[in-house]
Amino acid sequence: MGTSASSKSGAWSSIFDFVGDQFSRLIRLGWESLAEKIANVGEVVILFLRILIRFPYFFKNPSLTIQQMMRIGISSLPLIVVVSFFIGAVAAVQAAYQFRGFVPSTYLGTAVCKLVIIETGPVLTALVLAGRVGSAIAAEIGTMKEKEELDAMTVLALDPLRYLAMPRLISGIVVFPLLVVMSDFLAIIGGWLVTNLVLNVTTATYVFGLRFLFQGYDIAVSMFKAVVFGAIVVVMGYYNGLGAGAGARGVGQASMKSVVSSCVLILIVDFLIVYMAY
To answer: In a 3-state reduction of DSSP, which class is residue 276?
Structure first.
């Protein structure tokens, strides 16, 4: 009997020791991961400040920035047009469903306007551009690092932050708000078409709803979001491109990390901005 009890006690002791070891290991890995993320945030902030102090060089080589504006803005227009139109259409359908039997159709335009301008316009545009623009920047910078072009620029006394990062950051800060304005306009048009053709709401009623409770402050918050999101997408793309590993696999992972980190930061910063603004 004593031997049986002793063996059971030893088995339970082994189980508890195993669980304790695994729990300690999990805590250690979590702490190491958190410390790494905090260090990465510091590196991103330092990189942003290093790029920021090079803004005066824009006036010496404006063509570099204009070229990046064309690449980010013009090439993204088809995607923005499609996404924005259906954002407005979905917003109108969802608003009509939620309002049915409770709120007059007069307020459909109000719901679409508020939702698009404050939230879906800047946020979804930024998320879409994070996948398109951010990944492209990470892949381009990662490929240049792999081919040692960044090292060659440094040897030739050509500052990569001045000739590569600064034009892209300025372009993101300038072009993102313009794309958000276009996205808001197209989303409102999409909502109007759905309410007019599908929900049988007159144009006058929809326009009245747009004007009702409209505030210029909402536009200002939306534009501020767009500027911040543009900086996040560009800086995270450049940062992950610099950290790309060797070969095509490393470049692909850098692009993936750029998209994931940009999307997470966009959502976090969006919450902070809305919390402080409203």
So the answer is: helix
Whether 140 contacts 255, CB under 8 Å: no
Structure-token pair, residue 66: 């204009």
Which residues 6+ apart lie within 8 Å of 87 measured at CB?
Answer: 116, 120, 121, 124, 183, 187, 190
DSSP assignment of 148-181: THHHHHHHTT--HIIIIIHHHHHHHHHHHHHHHH
Q: Are 273 and 118 in contact (CB under 8 A)?
A: no
Tokens of 193: 């078409």
d(CA 225, CA 234): 14
pLDDT tens-digit series, residues 106-152: 778 888 888 888 888 899 889 998 988 888 898 888 888 888 888 88
Domain ranges (residues) in the chain? 1-53, 61-277
- 174 contact partners, CB below 8 Å, separation of at least 6: 69, 230
Nearest to 168 by CA among 54, 257, 263: 54
Distance of CA 271 to the CA centre of its chain: 12
